[in-house]
Amino acid sequence: MQDQAASVTRPRASRQLSPRANASATFHAIALLVTALYAVPMAYTVMVALTPDGEWIGAWPSHFAVANFTEAFLSADFLRFFINSAIVAVTCTLLQVLLSCAAGYALAMLPVRGRNLVLMLLVALLVVPPEVSLVPLFVMVSHVPLAGGNDIFGLGGQGLLNTLPGLMVPHIVSALAIFLMRQFYATLPAELGDAARMDGASEFRIFFEVYTPLVKPAVAVVAVFAFQSAWNDFVWPLVVTYSNDMRTLQLGLTVFFQENSTQWNLLMAAVLTISLPIVILFLLIQKYFQEGALAGALK
């Protein structure tokens, strides 16, 4: 009888979770909690965006007012705002990716004199708040020679103020993007470039065809950060533009803030709509993030 009792109790003891399983369960519980912290505000935003006019904001709506999205974009010249934001964001993304790749490759692979000093300056720039450079950038943009009525000394006109090139200036070069690309290029073997040089390849061909295809995950990260920074920028367009034709989408959201009230349902509908391009961009290049993670795991 004792042997039978022992045989019955043994399976129960084996069902206990191991310390590794307990740690995994705890990790998943924390991950679900963090996900909820992000999901709940987004769900609340969607609920407010679908709330009909005249109903209490924050309560469950009597019906879903999908027409809020159409009404929000008909409340102002959002088509013009969208075109301005798209031109600025796409152009800045392409230029920032190209310049960051070139600078990162030069700092990592080429015998550039003083590259360690340049790298230290890039790291120092990472801790500088962007608000510090707001006034110097404004002065530089307003005094561009031979632009906006300025003379050769940059005086007499408005420079690049209230223009699309003026909106692009802060987002063309990024210290973080250059530093990130330099770190990725530095992990690649120098033998690849040496072999290509022995075969007669030029430095530009080595850069574009040998090394850059190997850092696609970093290019994808820089592209997402560059597009998001230019698309979501509010302070710089507010400072550098003064006409309605040069406004971006972020400035267009201010039309829902009235003197005594705020149209929260239309505002949230517009916010959800203008966030779609960033989500679509991430989904399109998501595979490069996965390739980078798998490459790191295999190494």
Total count of strands: 0
Content-based structural category:
mainly alpha
What portion of residues is helical?
55-70%
- Alpha-carbon distance between the two ends: 56 Å
Topology as a string of helices (H) and strands (E): HHHHHHHHHHHHHHHH
The main pleated sheet reads as: none
Explain this structure.
- This protein is mainly α and 299 residues long.
- The chain has 16 helices and no strands.
- The chain has helices at 2-14, 19-49, 67-74, 78-109, 115-125, 134-142, 164-168, 175-186, 191-198, 203-211, 216-231, 235-240, 249-252, 264-274, 276-284, 286-298.
- Helix 2 (19-49) crosses helix 14 and helix 4 (78-109) runs antiparallel to helix 11 (216-231).
- The longest helix has 32 residues, at 78-109.
- The radius of gyration is 27 Å and the shape is flat.
Helices and strands, with pairings:
Elements: H1 2-14, H2 19-49, H3 67-74, H4 78-109, H5 115-125, H6 134-142, H7 164-168, H8 175-186, H9 191-198, H10 203-211, H11 216-231, H12 235-240, H13 249-252, H14 264-274, H15 276-284, H16 286-298
Helix pairs in contact: 2-14, 3-14, 4-8, 4-11, 5-8, 8-11, 9-10, 11-16
Question: Top keywords for this entry?
Answer:
mainly alpha; 299 residues
